[in-house]
Design a protein that fits this description.
By secondary structure, the protein is of the alpha/beta class. 46% of the residues lie in helices and 19% in strands. The chain has nine helices and seven strands. A seven-stranded mixed β-sheet has the order 2-3-1-4-7-6-5, with helices on both faces. The chain is elongated.
Length: 221
């Protein structure tokens, strides 16, 4: 099973649309920061049903803080409790920060969690770092949890705005001077009757060959 943890609702719209062709009717997307819903997906009562019907779960909204909480929640709820292989892809806007800096922050987060005896009271999990792949195992099961980081240059909103201007109004470069969320709102009002979600979903086909999109698609199994 694959889990995409995204920073925001817009990212969830984008990757939900991106993955539709590959996972027809088999993507379960949570568009708000309802951690209880995410936790329910991996709970004892739902897990076997979910893994049999949804090879891909997408969680969005809430920003970097909520993504960290979501990552910890998925790890705590699954590691050592089943014998499956679970792939988690954290998708972060890089905001201009180097990939290695963001990966190091993720490494520290995973290292802290794997040594937290308040979360793993009997046995602590083992954490390995294999290049861009973090691997967590637990002595209580044969399950493997693999975590990768993928980044969006600057922000998803900025990438969508740049591409939309290129396609819809290539001579209106002044629009790019707006803050990305504001520019996104202007474009949605102008070309989509204010429907920002539809604009973002359409943009997934325009951006599908970008390196950052291809990377996410390639690491989703």
């Amino acid at each position: 099973m694959n889990v995409l943890l995204c920073e925001g609702k817009n990212d969830a719209y984008f990757f939900d649309e991106t993955m539709k062709e590959r996972f027809t009717n088999q993507v379960y997307t949570i568009y708000n920061n309802d951690l209880s819903k995410l936790q329910e997906m991996f709970g004892t009562n739902c897990y076997n049903f979910v893994k049999g019907h949804f090879p891909l779960i997408i969680y969005g909204d809430g920003g970097k803080l909520f993504i960290k909480k979501a990552l910890r929640r998925v790890i705590i709820d699954t590691l050592g409790k089943n014998n499956d292989e679970l792939h988690i892809i954290m998708i972060l806007d890089d905001g201009g920060s180097p990939y290695e800096e963001l990966k190091e922050a993720l490494s520290e987060e995973l290292d802290s969690l794997s040594g937290d005896r308040s979360k793993f009271t009997t046995h602590l999990p083992n954490l390995e770092n294999n290049n861009d792949l973090f691997i967590l195992t637990h002595p209580r099961s044969r399950g493997i949890l693999k975590v990768r980081l993928a980044t969006v240059p600057k922000s998803l909103e900025e990438q969508v705005v740049i591409k939309t201007v290129e396609i819809k109004c290539p001579h209106n470069h002044e629009l790019l001077e707006n803050e990305p969320h504001r520019a996104l709102e202007i474009l949605a009002n102008e070309y989509y009757d204010g429907n920002r979600e539809r604009l973002i979903r359409d943009s997934s086909s325009w951006l599908k060959d970008e390196i950052w999109v291809s990377k996410v698609c390639n690491i989703v199994r």
